[in-house]
Specification:
The chain has about 475 residues and is α+β, with helices and mostly antiparallel strands. Helices cover about 35% and strands about 20% of the residues. The longest helix is centred in the first third of the chain and has 22 residues. The structure holds zinc ion (ZN). Zinc ion binds next to helix 4.
């Protein structure tokens, strides 16, 4: 055990008290009633960074909830790592479902229960404690380390990208390590290496210029609900895959390491459908197919459909318009702008005569994120996990969208790896959120070793950074 690891073990009880103190602050970002908690958590983080030995600690004005920044620059010749995390948490509701109060941390069976402890206060505190251990033990870090702690992750990160853009200079780095994220399963170490992108579109089909009486006009007037349903029925094939020409253009072949993880995972499709409360649909035959669909294939989902009378009783109306909200999850190689074009073309081509069409995308959308399979930082993180946890981590993908992956690449030119010691079953966003303290202890050792191993991480060409 290195001196740093011995130090971390000896100071574990203090670390736990720090984590409890952090969790006592109700830093719910979405509800203005918790604004004081947000400011208190930002201040708590700034003070904790200073105590750990970070320099240039600053609470950054973002235009929304503040972000917190700090850095330890050891030697300009060393690689620079930027650590990301967030101090804000989800609302604790429903309060009556908690076995102990959400902002009064409580330990049961080596798990710490509190809102935000797994997402992301526990995993975020780990690298800060590790920096402190290095500085108190060796007087320096093996790398230059910067940290950026966001306060709006749980409420849409509205000011995050502008903050990255404004602070490009100070955030310049060779690799970003996110302390946010989660291991996929408690029984196998994993690294998240891909997530799907997204585009969102609203579509409205119009008929007559006003709503019409279905007796007087039925049979002669166009019905936009009928036209919309016909259009929507043309979006998928019999296997429930997207059948829009051009939609799949550019998709890269499936990453073999993720396919291996899917095979090893031995996912139970029956249990999954029981949990979500639906019989297994026809196109899905087994757990591997299900994970391929969730992680590696794009989707087009109808999220809401509107038109005509929706109140009690009946109304004999032919509506003048009908609309649908669509979101698509994208995979590696798909360009959001091309996907929007393909959907637009498909709608225009298939729109029956006698109807109008309005198509409104919500913003430009986001591309899928995937880590270069040979990224030195990823390989280093995997070797640390293999050494500590006894088996090589599975490379897993996520069906949901992780916006920070593409944001750091866009504004800093740096790649991101996810190195979190939270586990996806720890009820974050739900009552009785907990963090396994065994993972807190493992995480401290893992971060200490990872920073050591990143001392020879390649440095980015300075030309990439503005
Ligand atoms: Zn999080």
């Amino acid at each position: 055990m290195s001196g740093v690891e011995t130090y971390l073990a000896e100071h574990y009880e203090e670390a736990l008290e720090d984590l409890k103190a952090f969790c006592r602050i109700p830093s719910v970002s979405t509800d203005p009633a918790f604004n004081e908690g947000i400011l208190a958590a930002a201040e708590f983080m700034a003070n904790r960074l200073k105590k750990a030995g970070f320099a240039s600690v600053e609470v950054l004005d973002t235009g929304g909830h503040p972000a917190v920044y700090g850095q330890v620059i050891s030697d300009a010749a060393l690689p620079t790592i930027l650590v990301y995390g967030h101090y804000d948490v989800q609302p604790p509701d429903p309060l009556d479902k908690w076995a102990s109060p959400p902002f009064d941390p409580s330990i049961r069976e080596d798990r710490l229960y509190a809102r935000g402890v797994s997402d992301d206060k526990g995993p975020l505190l780990i690298p800060i404690l590790v920096v402190e251990a290095y500085l108190n033990n060796e007087g320096r870090l093996p790398v230059n380390l910067k940290i950026l702690i966001e306060g709006e992750e749980e409420s849409g990160s509205e000011h995050f990208e502008p903050t990255l853009e404004r602070n490009r200079g100070r955030l310049a780095c060779d690799l970003v390590i996110s302390a946010d994220g989660a291991m996929w399963r408690p029984d196998r170490p994993s690294m998240t290496v891909a997530s799907r992108g997204m585009v969102a579109i609203d579509v409205t089909v119009t008929g007559a210029s006003k709503d019409l009486h279905s007796g007087r006009h039925g049979g002669s007037a166009p019905n936009p609900i009928r036209a919309l349903c016909k259009l929507l029925a043309s979006f998928h094939d019999a296997e429930a895959r997207v059948a829009v020409p051009g939609f799949m253009d550019g998709i890269k072949s499936l990453d073999p390491t993720i396919l291996t993880a899917i095979d090893v995972a031995d996912f139970d499709a029956g249990a999954y459908y029981r949990e979500i409360g639906t019989p297994k649909p026809d196109p899905i035959e087994n757990g591997s197919q299900l994970l391929v669909r969730q992680w590696l294939e794009p989707t087009l989902e109808f999220n809401g459909i509107f038109g005509g009378y929706q109140g009690p009783g009946t109304k004999t109306v032919i509506p003048s318009s009908a609309s649908v909200k669509i979101t698509c999850r994208l995979v590696a190689g798909q360009k959001p702008s091309k996907v929007i074009e393909a959907i637009t073309r498909h709608l225009e081509t298939n729109l029956p005569a006698g109807y109008g069409l309005q198509i409104e995308p919500h913003g430009p959308g986001s591309e899928a994120f995937s880590v270069d399979p040979n990224l030195p930082g990823l390989l280093a993180a995997e070797s640390v996990l293999a050494e500590l946890l006894g088996s090589y981590p599975l490379r897993v993908a996520m069906g949901a969208t992780i916006p920070i992956g593409t944001a750091f690449r866009k504004y800093l030119g740096a790649e991101v790896i996810f190195f979190s010691f939270s586990t996806s079953d720890e009820d974050y966003h739900a009552p009785n959120e907990f963090f396994r303290l065994s993972n807190f202890r493992t995480g401290l050792v893992a971060w200490a070793r990872l920073l050591g191993r990143l001392a020879d991480h390649p440095k980015l060409e300075p030309t990439i950074i503005i």
